[in-house]
Amino acid sequence: MVEPHNPPLPEKMRSVLLVRHAKSSWDDSMMADFDRPLDERGKKDAPLMAKRLLGKNIAIEFFLSSPAKRARKTAACFLKAYGLDDTRLAFRPPLYLPAHNAFIEAIESAPDEFHHIALFSHNPGITDFANSLTDAVRIDNIPTCGVFGITLQIRHWKDFSSGRPEFWFFDAPKYPG
Questions:
Q1: How high is the pLDDT of residue 2?
Q2: What pLDDT, on the 0 to 100 scale, is given for residue 11?
Q3: Is the peptide bond before 37 cis (omega within 30 degrees of 0)?
Q4: In angstroms, rounded to a whole number, what is the distance separating the alpha carbons of residues 59 and 117?
Q5: Residue pair 121/21 in contact by the 8 Å Cβ criterion
Q6: pTM here?
Q7: DSSP code of 44?
Q8: C-alpha closest to that of 152 among 9, 38, 4
Q9: What are the angstrom distances between the C-alpha of 141 and each of 70, 74, 131?
Q10: N or C terminus: which one in the chain shows less Cβ crowding within 10 Å?
Q11: Residues 6 or more apart from 133 whose CB is under 8 A from it?
Q12: Do residues 75 and 121 touch, judged by C-beta distance below 8 A?
């Protein structure tokens, strides 16, 4: 893991975590991609990563997710680990098979009362978006249940596009905690 700098973050700072859904099952080749569930490894990795972030005092106050089953289930594992109810989770259909703008629109739609948000989505879009945010780090592939974090100083989420994201950390289940 590339260690986060200065957790917890100052109150005026906002953070965005990009989380690729946990490993999904391919047991039923006839199942629609949208409906694929988590496999056994995914069911272990999602709570593991949520607990790892909690252990490092990385806050998440609001969750935005693709409505695809594997992303929804991953987000639900994080929500449970953080002890939050489902009022802190919103689904954004464009985060399934996402284009670059889907991430920006989702972030800019986040409620301003929350300073720390997480987006749950899919490759290749999530890796491409992460790489567009900062020149400090390049990620070849965000693996399943990998987390890419950025911070930025903006007053409102609607100002995300004009902000200057700074790389915070990158972590994944196969990395040592």
A1: 46
A2: 55
A3: no
A4: 8
A5: yes
A6: 0.92
A7: H
A8: 9
A9: 18, 18, 10
A10: C
A11: 150, 165, 167
A12: no
Token pair 């252990």 is at which residue? 55
Instruction: Give the long-range contacts of residues 113-116, CB within 8 A, separation 24 or more.
Output: 114/61, 114/62, 115/9, 115/11, 115/13, 115/14, 115/15, 115/59, 115/61, 116/9, 116/14, 116/15, 116/17, 116/58, 116/59, 116/60, 116/61, 116/62
The DSSP call for residue 122 is -
Cα 22–Cα 28–Cα 32 angle in degrees, nearest 5? 75
**Which residues of the chain fall short of a pLDDT of 70?**
1-12, 176-177
Q: Domains in the chain, start-ordered, CATH in brackets?
A: 15-23+34-118+126-171 (3.40.50.1240)
Task: List the one residue out of 17, 21, 47 whose CA is nearest residue 33.
Answer: 21
User: Which burial class, exposed, middle or buried, applies to 74 when counting CB atoms under 10 A from its CB (0-12, 13-18, 19+)?
Assistant: buried
Q: What pLDDT sits at residue 77?
A: 97
**pLDDT tens per residue across span 21-65:** 999 999 888 999 999 999 999 999 999 999 999 999 999 999 999
Alpha helix locations (H) across the chain?
40-55, 69-81, 100-108, 125-133
Classify burial at 93, counting beta carbons within 10 Å of its beta carbon; exposed 0-12, middle 13-18, buried 19 or more. exposed
